[in-house]
Amino acid sequence: MLNLFRRSIGESLRLKRASKLTQMENGQTPNEKYLHDFTYHGKECSVSEAKEVLSPYLDGSGSVDLEKDDNGIAKICLNNPRLKNAINVKMMSDLDEITDKLYQWTECKGAILYGTDGNFCSGGDLKLAKKMNNPSNGYAMSVYMGHILDKFKKLPIITVAYIDGTGALGGGAEVTTACDYRLMCNVADTTGIGFVHSKMGIVPAWGSTGRLVSIMGGAKKVLDLLLEARTLGAAEAMDLGLVDDTVATLEDAGAWLSGKISRDVNVIRAIKRTVLCYDDDDDSKAEARELERRIFAPLWGGTANQAALQLRLKHNR
Description:
By secondary structure, the chain is an alpha/beta fold. It has helices at about 1-20, 30-40, 45-55, 90-105, 125-130, 135-155, 170-175, 210-215, 220-230, 235-240, 250-260, 265-275, 285-300, 305-310, and strands spanning about 65-70, 75-80, 110-115, 160-165, 170, 180-185, 195, 230, 245. Helices cover about 50% and strands about 10% of the residues. The longest helix is centred in the N-terminal third of the chain and has 21 residues, at about 1-20.
């Protein structure tokens, strides 16, 4: 009887293996073949290697500026007003350095990330995107900016993105997911948040997809958000859990943050670190993040992306 049972189990396992073999094409399962055909096959690169790849594109206008208030609040300003604070490589480098400074500022309780001249961030700099529009540069950019935003998210302080003006679009929307809270200005109906990447023939590449699943509480909501590529107003964004509240001004955003960080600085930082211990977007996601980069890279500079860049689609709502 035992031998019969063992033979039954063995036959079941053989059938499963046979079923998998029937799905193989050129020695690959359909999923393996898809990943082989449509992902980036260059070697992995470290953060320092990614910075080196991007270094020829460091020349550019704009900056990210840090202001430290005596009350323990940092103000981080995306400053590229001519392009509605679109992000370029220099601004990535600035944000990298500022994040390191915030780790060293032990009296810091919180930070507000905002854009100059009444706009948050229109995404990536399209002119720069045209210059560095190939998969290897796209992969390096994903490694570098993904690292910066991961590091920013893990700061032991409370972070808030204040979204105003034309709002947070594309890469600008991705940046907001690295903050603990997102506040939207309620003065103008034109302010929105939009993960408009698919309009540009690409997908998010700075780690925001995983963060969005955690923020919005489900993969289906994120699937809809990315597929529809709509720019959401405050009410809808709040209903989805993407935005936490609305305020009228940057000063109001500061007051909102102050209400969250009234406790002792060490208690606040301990709370943040404790919550991060249970965060879904931790180092165990490293394999998924690497796959995200490899899926993104061939789209960067692909046919759909090049067509969108020519039409400057991303800056249109």
